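Input record (one chain):
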Amino acid sequence: GSSWDKCDFETSLCKALPEFNLQPGWIRRNGQSGMGPPYSDHNGNESAYFLSLSSEMQSSSATLRTNVFLPTDEEHVCQIRFHYWVSQMSGTLTVGLQKHSEDTVTNIWQVSGELQNRWKVNTITINSTEKYEV
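The corresponding structure, as predicted from the sequence alone:
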């Protein structure tokens, strides 16, 4: 059976992203915040919230880390579907996987800044025989 956790940031961070993991640089805002694009979420809703990097962070990086996920098997694969917006030419969005027996984070998906300035969507599938974080 599949269970979906939907994360829309309307009231807070979601179950997958613990509050204390909101590192400096990430802010929860909407399109009416006066901080520049995007001016709405991926549905065109100007008052809907999303996570955004603050403009002071343009030259450095900031991480979002999920809670611990349980191992996957034939019945339980993990799919993470997310909407993203990359505006600056130099910006890079990376999804990493850290298994609990490993010290390093393995990059499993990446996109670099393109002059597209629009919301895109992506789904990644994760298989891990041990507990992991994304």
